[in-house]
Amino acid sequence: MNNYIIMSDSTADLPIEVVEELGVKIVPFSYSINEEVYHYYLDERDAETADFYERLKKGAMPVTSQINPNVYKEAFEEYVKEGKEILYLCFSSGLSGSYQTSLLAVDMLQEQYPDAKVRIVDSLCASVGEGVFLYLAAKKQQEGATIDELEKWLNDNKHNVRHWFMVEDLFHLKRGGRVSTVEAMVGSALKIKPILSVDDAGKLVVKSKARGTNKALEYLISKVVEEGKDLSSLIAVIGHADSLEKAEKIKSMVIEAGMKEENIMIAPIGPIIGTHVGAGMAAIAFLA
């Protein structure tokens, strides 16, 4: 029986229509600007992503906060009350304490519901990487995978998710402590575009630098070709932080390289990830 719920959080960047079609449940992260708190839902019910980036460009300094145990507990409890098992695919433990917090929430929940069954999987992924992993997991559930089978598949494949992205500069990542001061000293005056990925510990790493946007995008495509192998069957999510033009260009480039258009999704990068990468970021993620 596949009577279990797949859940994730709003750092998993996927198009909202895809999330709704898959039937996965999303727990919102939150962020604050000038001490005003917003909850980020993929349907933007609390605040619009376009407005967030507009404020970011004008100098706003958002601060993100991880999901607290009570929010997790309430989100899980809704389905535990219905007698359903839950598989929760969590934002990378290398970038947030939310994985440990979700485990704490499960302990709290089981004090009240001793038979509650909530499986927590540390995705070691972020943004569109977490999004494509979530998408593939939900497809496997639809194909008949049991919760045990899906949990094993996720743990077996978490190191195979590839994240490749470029940012305009490393200011926001440095401010959030995601990269070191040394890594952040990349020559923005020379139009150098940092290229980053996620390592096996689920942490951000600077992998290369490119002179200009076109060279950066070419580098991303080269990694898709190198690691994607059979591009005709590859499924990918392209993400953008208020930079749809870059996302569309990546899409046309990977189609030219051999990917099928129907296997490509373009997703906006929400405010949680956007706080740390800044406007202009573009990314592609896939399972190698």
Overall SS class: alpha/beta
For the secondary structure, the number of strands is: 13
Measured between the Cα atoms of the first and last residue, the distance is 29 Å
The name CATH uses for the topology of the largest domain is: Rossmann fold
Total number of domains: 2
Strand portion: 15-25%
The helix count comes to: 11
Please tell me the CATH architecture of the largest domain by its name: 3-Layer(aba) Sandwich
CATH class of the largest domain: Alpha Beta
Low-confidence stretches: none
Percent in helix? 40-55%
Query: For the largest beta sheet, what order do the strands appear in spatially?
Result: 10-9-8-13-11-12
Explain what this protein looks like in three dimensions.
By secondary structure, this protein is of the alpha/beta class. The protein is built from eleven helices and 13 strands. It folds into two domains: 4-158, Rossmann fold, CATH 3.40.50; 160-287, 2-Layer Sandwich (Hypothetical Protein Tm841, Chain: A,domain 3). The chain has helices at residues 16-22, 49-57, 69-80, 98-112, 127-142, 147-157, 171-175, 181-184, 213-228, 244-257, 271-277; strands spanning 4-9, 25-27, 29-33, 36-40, 63-65, 85-90, 118-122, 161-166, 192-198, 204-211, 236-240, 264-268, 282-287. A six-stranded mixed sheet has the order 10-9-8-13-11-12, with helices on both faces. A hairpin with a 2-residue loop joins strand 3 and strand 4. Helix 5 (127-142) packs antiparallel against helix 6 (147-157). The chain is globular and about 55 Å long. The model has no long low-confidence stretch (mean pLDDT 93).
